[in-house]
Amino acid sequence: MKNIKDKVIVITGASSGIGEEAAKLLAKAGATVVLCARRKERLEQIAGEIKQAGGKADFYAVDVTQKDQLTRMIDEAATKHGRIDVLIGNAGLMATSPIGERKVDEWDRMIDINLKGILYGVAAVLPVFERQNTGHFINVASIAGLKVAASNVVYCATKFAVRALSEGLRQEYVGKFRVTTISPGYVESELMNGTSDPLARDGVVQAYAKYAIPSSSVAEAILYAIAQPQNTSISEIVIRPTVQEF
After folding, report:
1. CATH code of the domain containing 180
2. Catalytic residues
3. How many domains does the chain have?
4. Is position 229 within any domain?
5. Is 227 a domain residue?
6. How would you label 151-189 residue by residue, b for 16+ Cβ within 10 Å and e otherwise?
7. pLDDT in tens, 135-180
8. Backbone CA torsion sign across 232, 83, 32, 44
9. The pTM is what?
């Protein structure tokens, strides 16, 4: 884990699920982790657990849909630690419902969190990466960014967009920054709780109960991508339960 030790890694959506597990695993491997999410109490608890285990962790209560909050957090973290090596864009919302339900407010919220939240993080950290002449973007997409599913169309659209954004970043900064897309299938997390449509929610809960693998499995994939030598970039990892059909 020599390529992880002492790296400064910022993680959005770090108050539960993939973000929480990644923070704990990366801190155990020797990284300094900077946890970001809206729930300050949860962040404080997770950071405390990491420190109690001998790791290094900071936390900031941040809403990724607020550009100024992300910019301020990145600036403060970079000033405090002297650098930022990795930004993991993990915050997400899945509000499943048929298009015909016209839940436009939920569409807007998914676009704001899933896509604009990552874009705002990119915009905030790019000046830091450019000063360092090194950096690593890890963007959490989904298998929903690989195959469209009825009744989950807008969520799929945001995750297709995340994959396009990641590939565009890779091309524009080839040879300078590393870019990795992580596309999970069903994973134990709070993501399944974002659906307000009762029928869709029942289907989502049943599917997660049937298929979901631990968030720690995705955390291991993130660690793997970061741990590669600087001359090696893992462009994309698709990770799903062995029994998942799509």
Report:
1. 3.40.50.720
2. 155
3. 1
4. yes
5. yes
6. bbebbbbbbbbbbebbeebbeebeeebbbbbbbbbbbbb
7. 999 999 999 999 999 889 999 999 999 999 999 999 999 999 999 9
8. negative
9. 0.95
